[in-house]
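Notebook p. 47: complex prediction with NAP.
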Amino acid sequence: MSALYSRVAFVGLGLIASSMAHAIRRAGLAEQMSGTARSSETRAIAREIDLVDLVCDTAAEAVAGADLVVLCVPIGAMERIAQEIAPHLAEGATVTDVGSVKQAVIDAVAPHLPDHVQFIPGHPLAGTEHSGPRAGFAELFDNRWCILTPPEGHDPDALDRLTRFWQGMGANVDLMDAAHHDLVLAVTSHTPHLIAYTMVGVADDLRRVTDSEVIKYSAAGFRDFTRIAASDPTMWRDVFLTNKDATLEILGRFTEELFVLQRAIRQGDGALLHDYFTRTRAIRRGIIEAGQDTDAPDFGRIKT
Ligand code: NAP
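Predicted complex, structure tokens below:
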């Protein structure tokens, strides 16, 4: 594929930015890449592994002359970065981000950007529990969704180019408004993470009673919670601080359902439990049919 942008600039060089850099190189989507990170340690690693062509000490330097700027920092850092880069953005550049919550990022970033740039927020639905510039890999976005939330009045050409850019990195692209994105993600990602954090916290309390049994028998389901609960604390703190309403709405529904199941267990209502679990099993089948997970036993850990 030929280059879609002459210079892509990353602000933040962690898991998502480094995966994008590898995927961009794989497909030849940019003539040049620049980037910066907060700490000199991360910038030194980025230079050592040759992550991008130009590692800059400041965000202002990194974005200068870029026709695509990608904000890859935690949501809570977006506003300060937007203020810092605003005077240095090239005329006609597109600014996008990869934040896991969209309305809060728009509120934090859009007011600071000059009129001569296009702001098209985005969120790749792909990640791992690892962080930092060494964590990235080119295949992270393959067959995953990337949701773009273009504002009213956006330039269709800028959106089209950004769409082809994500497709070039292997992703499928969908468009949504920001509020809808935040509700969908509260169901599919944010609340499940909170439940995993809680479950691991409960088991940690219990461990004091059962010693190592929680670890020893973790393959019985708990292990998969621990992987999710190992996700980056800063990122997830910011997700819950900024997607508050949607997460509370879904948590409310979750609590109601939990009480229904709790009562069914107390009352020995096997029919209710069986019907409920039959319905949820069908959802799992739908996810596999949509190519979003493997049907292999134990999530593919067991080689068949
Ligand atoms: P990461 O691996 O932890 O990297 C974060 C980067 O942001 C690092 O380069 C870090 O610099 C920089 N940074 C952190 N705090 C900063 C601050 N206050 N000011 C300036 N720079 C700061 O994170 P990531 O997983 O790539 O996540 C980045 C964004 O992607 C987040 O907004 C997150 O919501 C979104 N996202 C994450 C996932 C996922 O599963 N991880 C999936 C989809 C979207 P230093 O290394 O120098 O500290």
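Notes: The mean pLDDT is 93. Residues 79 and 109 are 5 Å apart (CA to CA).
Next step: compare against the earlier run before touching the bench.
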